Amino acid sequence: MRLSVQSDVFDLGAEANAFAAAQTGAGAVVTFTGIVRDNGGTLSAMEIEHYPGMTEKAIAAIMDQAMARWSLADALVIHRHGRLAANDPIMMVATAARHRADAFAAAEFLMDYLKSRAPFWKKEIRADGAEWVAARDEDEAALSRW
After folding, report:
1. Distance between CA atoms of residues 72 and 145, nearest Å
2. pTM of this prediction?
3. What is the pLDDT of residues 52-72, one digit of tens each?
């Protein structure tokens, strides 16, 4: 299991290939990458803040839950912080399991919980000002399936 909270951009292909290559006995690897959306075409940047130590601890606990619940062989979470531009990769989740259903379910669980429970604060910066991104009802509702 590997967790990285970082400001540097990551290479999706290299990360996915390294993760998959390290798996022995897993029959499925699932990856997901989130990118910074520019709804409306006016985003100058997104600034993501976190509290070092607290953020990693919270994400590690979420990963531990996924590892146990779906008997994962391995999991990877990379999440960026700092100033990001539209279309920049913001996060990556990868899961490995004996069967695809477990790998997919665990990846979705991780994504839902990262979106709603990981302690990151996001601010959208536009030409007309900046605004903190509020929690969305649909993201909270997604947790009810778990």
Report:
1. 19
2. 0.94
3. 999 999 999 999 999 999 999
